[in-house]
Design a protein that fits this description.
The complex is a heterodimer of chains A (97) and B (163). By secondary structure, chain A is an all-alpha fold. Chain A has one domain (2-70). Helices cover 74% and strands 0% of the residues of chain A. Chain A is built from five helices and no strands. In chain A, helix 2 (19-30) crosses helix 3 (36-48), helix 2 (19-30) packs parallel to helix 4 (50-68) and helix 3 crosses helix 4 (50-68). The longest helix of chain A has 19 residues, at 50-68. The radius of gyration of chain A is 23 Å and the shape is elongated. Chain B has eight helices and no strands. Chain B has two domains: 1-69, RNA polymerase sigma factor, region 2, helix turn helix motif (Rna Polymerase Sigma Factor, Chain: A), CATH 1.10.1740.10; 92-156, Arc Repressor Mutant, subunit A. Classes of the chains: A mainly alpha (97), B mainly alpha (163). Chains A and B meet through helix 4 and helix 5 of A and helix 1, helix 2, helix 5, helix 6 and helix 8 of B.
Chain lengths: 97, 163
């Protein structure tokens, strides 16, 4: 019985994903929030399925475009805050502003 | 402290203003040092993001009466939005421009999540900390928000088609 269960689990983990499953998990995959095993199976499906591959490509382009909108943090602000953090750590800044 | 840059980026998303963002991170650092004894040492970024969120909420609470006394503040914001729309209308339609417009038109809860995850690069769990909502809510808002952006690309004929 135990070996049957183990066999079922192995088969399930190795079996190809359906388009429906890919649709459910695609966003997690693109956000790197999917475990390695399912990522591999999903990736294999995208290689073989043109429709899902195009869907993934669209969302990848959306993510890339959004990431490009990332505003540069103001370098002066960043430098001042790093300096402030260092002074705080050294106890050189009052904790009650 | 490598987290300062992430904090500043997220603060910028929350406040939409460089000076306010810097003030918010400074207050966050002070609160963090005050509470350092209660920190268990795990997940410092998530811990700092939680403090940032709470600090932001408290600062907004203090500010709200000032906004009520200064109705021009709201009007100025509306003027900026209208001005942006006019500018956008003249920009040639392109993939990136279409996405930027689509993002701007999303309802606030969807836009916030997309900004935190896709623009600021936070994980689902970190975005959930900042917004004080369950991770599942982050995921559903993210997926619905992206779906709306995708629909807009479809309507503009900019999404790849399989046939």
């Amino acid at each position: 019985m135990k070996s049957l269960f183990a066999r079922f689990r192995r088969t399930s983990a190795d079996s190809p994903m359906s388009c429906h499953q890919v649709g459910e998990l695609l966003q997690h995959y693109l956000d790197c929030e999917l475990d390695a095993s399912r990522s591999l199976r999903l990736s294999a499906h995208l290689e073989d399925c043109r429709r899902c591959g195009l869907e993934a490509e669209t969302y990848e382009r959306i993510k890339l475009s959004l990431a490009q909108q990332r505003p540069e943090v103001a370098p002066d602000s960043l430098a001042r805050l790093r300096e402030f953090g260092t002074r705080l750590a050294r106890g050189e800044e009052p904790l009650d502003p | 402290m490598p987290e300062i840059e992430v904090l500043l980026r997220v603060a910028r998303s929350l406040t939409r203003n460089d000076a306010d963002a810097e003030d918010l991170v400074q207050d966050t650092l002070i609160r963090a040092y005050k509470a350092i004894d209660r920190f268990d040492g795990r997940h410092p970024r998530a811990w700092l993001l939680t403090i940032l969120r709470n600090t932001h909420i408290n600062r907004n609470r203090r500010r709200r009466p000032e906004l009520l006394r200064d109705p021009g503040g709201a009007t100025r914001h509306m003027d900026e939005v209208v001005s942006d729309e006019v500018t956008d209308a003249s920009v040639e339609a392109s993939f990136d421009a279409e996405i930027e417009k689509a993002l701007g038109e999303l309802d606030e809860p969807f836009r916030r999540v997309i900004e935190l995850v896709d623009v600021d690069g936070l994980s689902y769990a970190e975005a959930a900390e900042v917004l004080n909502v369950p991770t599942g809510t982050v995921m559903s808002r993210l997926h619905r928000g992206r779906g709306r952006i995708r629909d807009r690309l479809d309507r503009a004929g900019l999404a790849p088609r399989s046939h």
